[in-house]
Amino acid sequence: MFDWLGFRKGLPLWWSYRLNRHLKEDVEHIFEGIAHTRTELLRSWVETYWSHLDRLHAMLSESASTASQNSQDSAVIQKMLTAALKSGADFSEIFILNEKAGVSYSTYPAHVGKTYVVGSGLMKGLEETRKGEKCLFGPFSDPLTLQIGPSTSPFHDAMTMAFILPLVKNGEWQGAICGRVPNDVLGDLIQRESGHVYPDSGDNYLFMAKPVLNKQIAPGTALSRSRFEDLTFTHGDNLKDGVRTDFGTVGVKEHTELELIFTDPATGQLHPGVAGTIAKGSNLFVEFPGYSDYRHISVIGKGVTFQLPHCPDIWGMMCEGDLEEVYRIRSIDWKMFSLQLKFIVGFILLSGGGFWLLNGHVSSGLGAAITAAAGAIYGWIGSGILRRKGSKPVVKQLAQINKFIRLNAEGSGDLTQRLRVQEFAGDETRELAKWINNMIDSLEGIMLQVKQAAAEVQLSQDRLNESTGSTEQSTGRMSTQIHNMIRSLRGQLRDIDVAKDVTQNMSGTLRELEEKASDQIAVAQDEVGRIGDKMNQISAKVAETNQTIQTFLLTTQEIPQLLKVIEEISAQTNLLSLNASIEAARVGEHGKGFAVVAGEIRKLADLTKKSTTEINETIEQIERHANEAFLSMEEGTKVVLEGTQIVAAASEILSSASAHDTMKTQVVEEVVALMEKVAGVSKENRQISAEVEQTVHELLQDMLHVRQTTGDVGAITQSLLQLMNQFQLTESRIR
Fold this sequence. Notes:
The protein is an alpha+beta fold. Helices cover 65% and strands 10% of the residues. It folds into three domains: 3-326, PAS domain (Beta-Lactamase, 2-Layer Sandwich); 332-411, no CATH class; 493-716, Methyl-accepting chemotaxis protein (Helix Hairpins).
């Protein structure tokens, strides 16, 4: 019946559970609600902090696309990191890694320059992001986290969670944006200490359910700080001093995370709550006898497994409370019934005594008087006891609760105050006080978030005001420049229109000139053709003359041979005449007539010789002049040939000129067509310039509206902060 608890420990627990078994459904709802709200809170928190890095990434990308890498850019990037750190209050550091895993920028200057190598704490997470996906890595121990200091958690050690967003360009890993969060922040999220429903024993803790990336972490290993780690919340056994059990001492040296594995000291195996949650994915157990935890104490609660956004590992969370505390309640109804039962027993005893007295021991009158007096005294004392032990404590506690609620409802709104649960009896009033504390704690957490959000809105609004002012000035300067540009553009468009008209006029003039030139070129081509024909005729005549002169020269070359024959004949004739004279002289008188004839013949021979000599000289002169004429004719022939070539070239030039005129006409037509297109574009540019001018005007109006809106937002934020300041909040808590 009492299972592993044994009779001595089991009996009181069984009695408590038996008396309050009707609360089982409520207890189930309580643990289901705690588990659900805590897991959703974790997921929402992780998504929020991924969004901080996403916005930072977007701003860095936009900055990189419009600027070069220089010192000014470094200052801008550093400013962006600082702003992101302020927005994400749980971050203790934001830093950027380059492609060699070296720290290029960081909100913690001492970290700049460090390079992460294989085997370093962050390297597994970086390797995961080389796949191009985000990675929530941890928890892991990093001394730098301890050195940097806490962000929002009142507890702080070296345990770290890292948000790693890869920087990828053209499919290549170029580095990462990393956000460092002290791991105790997660413990604060799920524990919310002042709002614990079961303040004495309640604990919500994380453990490894299924390691995927961190395979070195065994299932069942603690991933968050336990509220029983030290004496902060409890004043008994704790993990730092060592929790003593009948089977040994359970403890940690530095921190709960990764040092503690949730095993049952009696068996050395994972305790049933954790083991059942890992096996089933979800485990709810709120009945007697509960199950043994790492302290070998009976606990009940809800276990769930879940996966945080971009975290490869599957985690588990236990929401537990000791069975004794959960079912410790003793109802007002039970208390009143106990008192009434005692009062009835007393009344029965008093009635029996009265009956004994009236049964002859005393006179009936005296017995009746004694019985009436005893009844009156017993009734007065009994009613007093019932009031003092029953209704008065309840009224007092209700009055205390009423006062607490009244002060928060109509007073200063002091949300730092809590009801002292230990001052309430273990009945419904204590439960009411616990849930009021839980509600106030939740309300304070919400109000703190609203206050933080309002402060961030105000900070963003201030930055927006500053940016709006700068943008307004820039827009004004841009407007002036655009007006100047549009004015210049309109002047250019007017010039284009003039150029178009001039081009069209030039086109007409060129067409007229082309027509005249074409006519003149046609006439010139005809004249050149006729000249060419004449030059061809001259060339033919010159050739004939050259041929005649050559024939004449050949003929004159034959004359000297004939003259030579004549000279020979003349010489022979002269010789014959001489012989005849000699014979005539020898004959005497009879030969005188023959001698005269012979003399005449000799004279004729001499004259022939002289004439032949003159003819030779004349022929030599003729031959010389003929050669000179031949040479002159050859020169003339060359000149005629050159003239013919010139005429042909002139004809070709005239033809080319005609073709060039056609090309010029085509070019002019193309220029005219281009100018018409330019004119068409100019019309569009006129419309665009008007639209740009209107857009700039609208932009200026929008900037005025933005300034007015930011002013309204600022006023609303101030009003919201004033409303928030009406509540007293625990400033050390962020949630």
